[in-house]
Amino acid sequence: MSSIIQLLPDHVANQIAAGEVVQRPASVVKELLENAVDARATDIKLIIKDAGKALVQVIDNGLGMSVTDARLCFERHATSKIRQAEDLFSLHTKGFRGEALASIAAIAHVEMKTKQDQEELGTHIIIEGSKFVSQDVAVLPKGTSFAVKNLFFNIPARRNFLKSDTVEYRHIIDEFQRVALAHPKIHFTFYHNGSEMFNLPPSTLRQRIVNIFSGKTNEKLVPVQEETEIVAIQGFVSKPEFAKKNRGEQFFFVNDRFIKSGYLHHAVMAAYDGILKDGAQPSYFLYLSVPPNTIDINIHPTKTEIKFDDEHALYAILRASIKHSLGQFNVAPVLDFDRDSNLDTPYHYKDLEGATPTIQVDGNFNPFSDDKPNKHFSNYKKPEPTANWESLYVGLKQDTDEIGHMTFENEEVTSSLFNDEEVEHSVHKTYQIHKKYIVSSIKSGMVIVDQQRAHQRVLYEQFLVNMTVNQASSQQLLFPLNLFFSSSEMNLIAELQLSLMNTGFVFEENNSDHIVISGIPVNVTESEVSLVLEQLLSDLQDGIPESSFSQNDTIAKSMAKSLAVKTGTHLTEKEQENLVNGLFACKDPNVSPFHKPTFITMRVEDLDKKFAL
């Protein structure tokens, strides 16, 4: 029998390896930026076209490569970072496997220009799908330029699996921010389709965070710093009042390498225990420095997960450091039995003497006098008898009857739930159970409604009608709201602005780091605006739907989730009735916008069976 095992050709092996290294354009951005950092560059430019599908180019002023290195860097497992296996446990650089460039060259058109400082001429190499097209000498500046064009041109199936340009662009921004935050001393510039998106000059760590996320980031940050034999921690966490619904601004760096760690995240959340609202997520930018031989970074293909030697000690140190910082800056309550802060004298009253109180007495005042009131009460007028006082109550009964019958939009009960003969036209008394369910009787038994899901369905259909059929009405604000967001969040809001205006939002102006809202939907209060927008941005983390209907549907679901009455809220009897009537006036009252049942029915026969012996 002939042998059936054979060695794969190099270009096939490279394409297989590319599936592990290059998942999307953002993967190329990560690899090229990290190579530029390892080359000791002080100025790095990232140029993107069509969300990286057409072009990803990184230009740096680093060390550059010789002619031999320029050709050799595209070979598999060719690297300058390690020489022996032991080097894996003392890494101080980003890339080390030597597969990135070989994998990228296997699935794209690559053009590389590089020159060392001491050389007069540089090297210009063009590769298409692992095939060397040309290699020439060229007059170039110091450093290296990598241009990756037409990603996945020879693997159409992989290219078809890429998301929309909006989603891919957001992933690129995430990778760019991670590298830029890890190296604040390097000048980073980011261009997308010819427009400058970021220009980050060398700065301190705090300033780099502010430059990337803009807005009022500076006033949100609380510094964290701790140094022990196990780990040195520095960075910033956010104040509890600035916590958000999403987990966008959460960064861990270990030895200047971005990582993801659910275990360390739990340590941060433990430090905030008791001072965060339910579901709120704090922002943090934490930099951990540990001895390289105490970690293993080669446990995940993308190198975003790390194994620590002593995770328990690291957990305790991180939690204590953050808790100490929050207490030190009076963010978290501190126990001090020696003083009562309520009795502290304000600083500007410290050297002031107390003023002697004075009493003014009107010696001419006589409570039994029939004279007119004195000058202090000169504006007092004796009330005159009101003629025809009965007219004050005309129409009052009619008004109260109208108020008593106010319900949600479309009060008619659909016949999909009950048969016509089962519907009792008399008003049924409703009961609230555990501030979660509403029970109402029907002819065949009773109906039990989940108040939160029911309200979500009512609001969802109202928002959809306003956005697609009717012109949404707005309530004008006396004082416009200024809401600050990061640059990526501002891009999302700009794309959703038309749909948000259809719901009733009125945008007065859009700036680079904040928006000004002068009008809001009638069923949204001023205090709920920021919560609604934060929830919407959180729901759209995976991308904005391309069709307008899908956008409207997503926005309606998100706003309904934010504004619906929550479990644990007490409802009056009238509110309960309005909610039940509003639910059964919906087109689809059976399920919430998230396809969960809104109510169940129990027949009298079912109850009889429960009591049967």
UniProtKB/TrEMBL annotation:
SMART domains: DNA_mis_repair, MutL_C
Keywords, comma-separated and alphabetical: DNA damage, DNA repair, Endonuclease, Hydrolase, Nuclease
Domain MutL C-terminal dimerisation per the UniProt entry, residue ranges: 429-571
Gene3D superfamilies referenced in this protein's UniProt entry, alphabetically: 3.30.230.10, Histidine kinase-like ATPase, C-terminal domain (3.30.565.10), MutL, C-terminal domain, dimerisation subdomain (3.30.1540.20), MutL, C-terminal domain, regulatory subdomain (3.30.1370.100)
Record carries keyword RNA-binding: no
Ranges of residues in domain DNA mismatch repair protein S5: 209-327
MF terms in GO: endonuclease activity
Pfam families associated with the record: DNA_mis_repair, HATPase_c_3, MutL_C
Domain of life: Bacteria
InterPro entries named in the record: DNA_mismatch_repair_CS, DNA_mismatch_repair_MutL, DNA_mismatch_S5_2-like, HATPase_C_sf, MutL/Mlh/PMS, MutL/Mlh/Pms-like, MutL_C, MutL_C_dimsub
UniProt-listed PANTHER family: DNA MISMATCH REPAIR PROTEIN MLH, PMS, MUTL, DNA MISMATCH REPAIR PROTEIN MLH1
Family the UniProt entry places it in: Belongs to the DNA mismatch repair MutL/HexB family.
Name listed for the protein in its UniProt record: DNA mismatch repair protein MutL
Gene this chain is encoded by: mutL
